[in-house]
Amino acid sequence: MPDVAIAAPNEAAADAGQRIALAGGNAVDAALAASLVTMVNEVGLVSLSSGGFITVQPPDGSPPQTVDGWMDMPGRGQALGGGTWDVDTEYGGGVTITIGAGSVATHGSIAAFEEAHRRWGSIPWRELVTPAIEVARTGFRMSAASRYYLEHVHEAIFGWDEESRAAVHDADGAIDSGQLVLPDLAASLELIAADGAAALHTGELARLISADVIRRGGILGPEDLADYRPVVRPSLVARAGDWTFGTNPPPSVGGVCVAAMLRLLDGRPRGPWEPEDVQHVIDVQRAVLGHRLSVLDHADDLERDAAAFLDLVDRDDVGALESGSTAHVSATDSDGGACAVTVSSGYGSGMIARGTGIWLNNCLGEQELNPRGLHGLAPGTRLLSNMAPTVGQHVDGSAIAIGSPGADRITTAIVQVLAGFVNGGLGLQDAVDHRRVHVHRAGRPDEVVRTETDLTMYYGGVGATLRRHDGRLVAAADPRRDGAVRLVHGPTPATTA
């Protein structure tokens, strides 16, 4: 049985990872089981109607790979447009969100989980799903992150659908502070445990979801679900010091931003963070995020344009600085494997598909991920994503897994933690705890540089795990959210950070 370190968004998810590790599971098994629980109890942030990415460092030392289970544009055979409306909210510093049945994209996270399990898992699929079934059946309290989000949107987004309203509100119309029990969701998870991802793509759950979305004016048809496939790609490689990192490649834009920022940091900070280091981070973010907003978000060929941008960074280095709703689980094991999983349902469409207990995503309505507008892509096209689950290997054999939720703060949170850990000599937990800076709307007239004073979930929720070269394990969770860590070990000592 390998030792396993787990960092998860909440205690129940961490418990699930621990349970699977104690049953003999490896880092991939533990990360997937923990992530499945978040799809139950991180209400409003992630659900079974989600997309995600899994980046894996195989224990044999072969190059890291990323399983793309992100959202597809639906609409095969459907009239595009309609079935949506906009909601303005102060969440995340102020954002306009498009919701309704027409905002529901083609989900893919469970299909990606199944593919990752097939390639690198070590215990039966049903065992991975069982903890999530039990949480849905016995009940849970909302996490602090869920409550914080729902305080902004519980009426506007999660109040228009009758079943959704009943699930998150008490009799007085306030956010329910008691135990949420979701029997329909438990039954859906039972089908997934028995039939795998097919239940959500060609089986009964697919039929129920598609029928309800179409009935309410959306465009997610049965062909969209049946034709969906996860894609396995070589991870995008970035180097910092003696570490080699693998992160999310195109068509996600998040990993490109992480790789570019790591290259431009130029080894900073060289010791404790100094004011000039913080200014350098701001300059790096301005360059990379500004290029993303002006070029990458509108690219016809993202892989080509991302490669050209990374080539520019490598050639011009500092000269390049002068140019223009989510859950994450990390796990590493004593065999040298590492797994980083990030999943999202967007801000939520507000509706539960009848007969399933599943809150449906609104990823077509995340306006920052759809620069061509609502229904602006051809059916079957992957949407943009900020997500950047990342793994790394050190020349001494150490392995790390890291990632974060947080929309456009995902990449800046990950890079600042890695910079403090790799370059600054901070311990993993100290690097996670350190205050952050984020350039919002980089390069635009309304650009704002936001510097963290009090810890807040606006700046992400990093989860990171580490296997040191001597075999000891470390896990670090972000105090900005209800993060939880677990260390499951045999005779080799393990440590918390």
Distance between the termini: 22 Å
Strand content: 15-25%
By helix and strand content, what is the structural category? alpha+beta
Rg result? 21 Å
Low-confidence stretches: 317-324
Spatial sequence of strands, sheet with the most strands: 6-3-2-10-9-1-19
Domain tally:
2
Biggest beta-sheet profile: 7 strands, antiparallel
| Global mean pLDDT | 90
Percent helix, as a range, is 25-40%
The tally of beta strands, per DSSP, is 19
Oligomer: single chain
* Shape, per Cα inertia axes: globular
Tally the helices: what do you get? 15
How would you describe this structure to a colleague?
With 497 residues, the chain is an alpha+beta fold. The protein folds into 2 domains: 4-232 and 334-369, no CATH class; 236-328 and 386-481, Glutamine Phosphoribosylpyrophosphate, subunit 1, domain 1, CATH 3.60.20. It is built from 15 helices and 19 strands. It has helices spanning 11-22, 27-41, 109-120, 125-138, 144-153, 162-168, 183-195, 198-201, 204-215, 222-227, 254-264, 275-294, 302-316, 410-423, 428-433; strands at residues 4-8, 51-57, 65-69, 85-89, 95-99, 231-234, 236-240, 243-247, 326-333, 338-344, 352-353, 358-359, 390-394, 399-403, 437-440, 448-451, 463-467, 473-477, 484-488. The strands form 5 sheets. It has a 7-stranded antiparallel β-sheet with strand order 6-3-2-10-9-1-19, covered by helices on one side. It has a 6-stranded antiparallel β-sheet with strand order 7-8-13-14-17-18. The longest helix is centred in the middle third of the chain and has 20 residues, at 275-294. It comes from Aeromicrobium chenweiae. Belongs to the gamma-glutamyltransferase family.
